[in-house]
Amino acid sequence: MVKVTYVAHDGTQTAIEADEGDSVMHAAVANDIDGIVGECGGSMMCATCHCYVDEAWEERVGGRADGEEDMLEGAASEVTERSRLSCQIKLTGDLDGLVVHLPEDQI
Ligand code: FES
Q1: C-alpha distance from residue 63 to each of 1, 16, 26, 56, 78 (Å)
Q2: Residues 69, 79: contact at Cβ < 8 Å?
Q3: Architecture of 2-101 per CATH?
Q4: What residue's CA is closest to ligand 1, atom 3?
Q5: Confidence label for 8 from pLDDT (cuts 50, 70 and 90)
Q6: How far is the CA of 100 from the centre of ligand 1 (A)?
Q7: Which pTM was predicted?
Q8: What contacts 73, CB < 8 A, 6 or more positions away?
Q9: Model confidence over 48-92: pLDDT tens digits?
Q10: Beta strands across the sheet bearing 83-85
Q11: 39 C-alpha to ligand 1 centroid (Å)
Q12: Is residue 107 over pLDDT 90?
């Protein structure tokens, strides 16, 4: 299992355990995390799974997928260099303990 902590816009933290291979978006939806919608189901067509990777995890999470940058342009909240589509972050053992921050709005 991989531990992921979601930090809501108001600072509330929720930690969950997800399966390796799951995405940060899917793990959030499966655990009723407010702030991640995942409208398109993870096919990189919506940007309602926008998150900000915690600074300490940026390197381990790695860069954006092909096309992710374009889709992020449609995100409802400010896009920063730490912005990612959480459906494109697959959980591996290396990401155990991952922290992501959630934007104010997804829609
Ligand atoms: S769930 Fe739609 S782009 Fe990530």
Answers
A1: 23, 23, 19, 14, 18
A2: no
A3: Roll (3.10)
A4: 44
A5: very high
A6: 15
A7: 0.97
A8: 47, 79
A9: 999 999 999 999 999 999 999 999 999 999 999 999 999 999 999
A10: 13-18, 2-7, 98-101, 50-53, 83-85
A11: 6
A12: no
Boundaries of every domain in the chain: 2-101
- Nearest atom, ligand 1, residue 47 CA: 3
Among 78, 8, 90, CA closest to 42: 90
* Interatomic CA distance for residues 104 and 76, integer angstroms: 9
Amino acid occupying residue 19: D
Taking the centre of ligand 1 as the mean of its atom positions, its distance from the CA of residue 24, in whole angstroms, is: 11
Q: What does the block give as tokens for 28?
A: 């959030």
Give the strand pairing for 98-101 and 50-53: antiparallel
Among 41, 83, 38, residue whose Cα is nearest residue 65 = 83
Q: How far apart are the first and last CA of the chain?
A: 30
| H or E segment to which residue 99 belongs | strand 98-101
Question: Which tokens go with 87?
Answer: 């459906």
One-letter amino acid identity for 15?
A
